[in-house]
Specification:
Largest sheet: 7 strands, mixed
Number of helices: 17
Number of strands: 13
Helix content: 40-55%
Strand content: 15-25%
CATH architecture of the largest domain: 3-Layer(aba) Sandwich
Order of helices and strands: HEEHHEEHEHHEHEHEHEHHEHEHEHEHHH
Radius of gyration: 23 Å
Shape: globular
Distance between the termini: 58 Å
Number of domains: 2
Strand order of the largest sheet: 1-3-2-4-5-6-7
């Protein structure tokens, strides 16, 4: 019987490796090797995936390591099988493969942690706090949806950190890590069609554009606010969470609140919403940089968001100063005081910021510069160590 179960486990592990580990993706024969621990979907499909920004960024990251003369292996970040790390000069990414490399004495190379969100210690506590607030208000027992593993060794003991975010995101790491940290801006998806909206009508329409973690991203606060103002419309695009929908059933059934489900950026529905809505609202409690907000800014929506979105909202839109109803009320009062011409200027500024800071081309240029910096520093250290 033990032998039977052992065969099942071995077979399962083999299939996981076959599906979630990609050996020498570009079929190169360089002298150096890198293991990228991140998402594998775009490499398994063979397509340039663009329906989420991390998929297009992953493909750019891999291609830059190839251009820097590394043979590129790619592994799914959640794969919890033991790998052999001895052949790698660099491990880049996040998740279990990077974390487990600290327990492999055969690995003598460079570890670069790719931090795509705020520090997990901060993020987890922030979401729990928001969940507790909703549970007290609604007499419910909602649970967090975006709790992430701490990956403490990756956070604190990697040789370098590449961090998606801004100075706020960086501030969540400084209490726990002293390693060299480089910030880089996330990409947004780029519209393929021109967005035409009438400001006089669109100024009353807001889009909450997220994924999972409805409380984490402040949808509860939006529902509480918009349920009081029937002259303003809230459009919701995100994943269905049964406990949340039960708690906010009354608000979600109001005529000025519209739930559309989780939608594709390239869909006709998103295009219609982009033409209807003047604002993208996101009172999130923790992000690296909120790519849904960046994407909506790319189609000219004005960001109404918290500092925790990792975007300099105070320069580009309207800042939600506190994650409570009072914070939303203050932000929306400011919006109501702006005339149509001012809103159109902010809309143009949002699109300009997207083009200048969040395009895939800008990401590729900045990522390559960061890698060249990190790898050249490592080469200098190696030469000093060996007296070269």
């Amino acid at each position: 019987m033990k032998s039977f179960f052992k065969k099942i486990v071995l077979s399962s592990n083999y299939l996981k490796l076959k599906y979630y580990f990609i050996d020498n993706y570009y079929h190169t024969s360089f002298s150096k090797n890198v293991l990228i621990s991140y998402v594998t979907l775009p490499f398994r499909t063979g397509k340039f995936e663009t329906y989420h920004s991390n998929l297009q960024e992953a493909q750019v990251i891999a291609s830059i390591f190839r251009d820097l003369s590394y043979n590129v292996d790619i592994v799914e970040f959640s794969l919890d099988l033991r790998l052999s790390y001895s052949k790698y000069d660099v491990i880049f990414g996040l998740g279990e493969p990077l974390e487990m490399s600290f327990y492999d004495a055969s690995f003598k190379g460079l570890r670069i942690y790719y931090a795509t969100g705020a520090n997990s210690i901060y993020q987890n506590l922030a979401e729990i706090k928001r969940i507790q607030e909703v549970n007290i208000l609604k007499h419910r027992a909602l649970t967090p949806k975006r709790i992430v593993p701490y990956w403490c060794l990756s956070n604190a003991m990697s040789d370098a950190i590449v961090l998606i975010g801004n100075e706020w995101t960086y501030s969540t790491y400084t209490p726990y890590s002293k390693v060299p940290t480089y910030t880089i801006k996330a990409t947004g998806l780029t519209p393929k069609r021109e967005i035409k909206r009438k400001t006089a009508q669109a100024r009353y329409n807001f889009l909450w554009f997220g994924s999972q973690g409805l409380v984490h991203k402040g949808l509860d606060l939006c529902l509480r606010y918009f349920s009081q103002y029937s002259d303003m419309n809230l459009h919701i695009c995100g994943k269905y969470e049964s406990d949340f929908f039960e708690a906010f059933e009354q608000e979600l059934n109001l005529p000025n609140i519209h739930y559309h489900g989780f939608i594709n950026f390239e869909s006709e529905l998103f295009y219609e919403l982009a033409c209807q809505c003047m604002f993208s609202i996101l009172p999130s409690c923790s992000e690296g940089q909120a790519t849904s907000l960046i994407t909506s800014m790319g189609v000219g929506m004005i960001p109404v968001a918290s500092v925790q979105t990792g975007i300099g909202v105070e320069r580009l839109g309207v800042l939600i100063k506190s994650l409570d109803l009072e914070g939303l009320e203050e932000a929306l009062r400011k919006i109501k005081s702006l005339d149509d011409a001012s809103l159109e200027q902010l809309s143009a500024l949002a699109m300009q910021n997207h083009a200048e800071n969040h395009s895939l081309e800008v990401f590729a240029r900045n990522f390559r510069a960061i890698m060249e910096n990190i790898l050249s520093d490592q080469l200098k250290n190696d030469n000093l160590a060996y007296g070269k």
